[in-house]
Design a protein that fits this description.
- By secondary structure, the protein is α+β, with helices and mostly antiparallel strands.
- The protein has 4 domains: 8-42, no CATH class; 43-75; 88-169, no CATH class; 179-221.
- Helices cover 32% and strands 16% of the residues.
- The chain is built from 7 helices and 11 strands.
- The protein has helices at 34-40, 70-87, 119-128, 160-169, 186-197, 203-210, 214-221, and strands at residues 8-11, 18-21, 46-49, 56-59, 89-91, 96-98, 102-103, 106-109, 117-118, 136-139, 155-158.
- Strand 3 and strand 4 form a beta hairpin.
């Protein structure tokens, strides 16, 4: 008959109660139960109350949990974001003016624990719901183009082509020195045209003096570029 396994008697490191283990566990076993193991490695869970719904839930002391679920956390952060959003808005009889940070005239808002978003887009989502992935929120303020307005009555949902057309119609295309890639100012363009039309300097001489190519000078004097600049 095979020999019976010899079991070892060990004392629990937490409650000091003795318990038996197999020979293979004799050197690694330390606790008689999961409860003793968890108690030994830290304080027992404590009861907290959710900051959103006030429901009681258990959490370890080391955890900074304030909500019983992700749904409650999201709801609380949304409420906080909305409250901060309105603190930046000044309502008039027509436009609702954004008094927070601006970016190219548009309001910028940073919701709680989220990426920054255009203030008028946040207002649209707040009043009308989610914006489609390719959707653009455009302005139709009755008193004129007002990019800082967040009045939902002055906002409408359009496509990218509609947004481009609207921007062009309002004269807000990135052109001239307002284009991030522009190397010349409007005044420099006027001087180039004036110097060339005076007949004193050639295009190449002007190009060498300004530090640009002759082709660039040619495009400028022929109004192929910088068409909106008049002498």
């Amino acid at each position: 008959m095979p020999a019976k396994s010899i079991w070892f008697l060990i004392s629990c490191e937490q409650c000091r109660k003795q318990f038996t283990v197999k020979p293979s566990k004799a050197t690694s076993a330390r606790f008689c139960s999961w409860e003793c193991k968890n108690t030994h490695h830290g304080p027992p869970p404590i009861v907290k109350h959710c900051k959103q719904c006030d429901v009681a839930f258990t959490s370890h002391v080391s955890k900074q949990k304030q909500f019983c679920s992700n749904a409650c956390r999201h709801q609380a952060l949304t409420i906080d974001s909305v409250s901060r959003f309105w603190s930046y808005v000044e309502k008039t009889t027509s436009c609702w003016l954004w008094k927070g940070p601006l970016n190219f005239g548009y309001g910028r808002f940073n919701p709680t624990h989220s990426k920054a978003i255009a203030a008028h887009r946040f207002s649209y989502q707040l009043h009308y719901g989610p914006i489609p992935p390719e959707g653009c929120v455009l302005h139709n303020c009755p008193d004129g183009d007002n990019r800082a307005c967040v009045n939902p009555a002055h906002l409408w949902l359009g496509t990218k082509p509609e947004n481009n057309t609207d921007r062009h119609n309002k004269g807000r295309d990135a052109r001239g020195e307002h284009d991030g890639n522009a190397k010349l100012t409007e005044e420099a363009v006027r001087q180039i045209r004036s110097r060339y039309h005076s007949g004193v300097l050639s295009q190449q001489e002007i190009a060498n003096d300004v530090g640009i190519s002759q082709t660039t000078v040619s495009d400028i004097v022929r109004s192929k570029t910088w068409k909106h600049i008049n002498l």
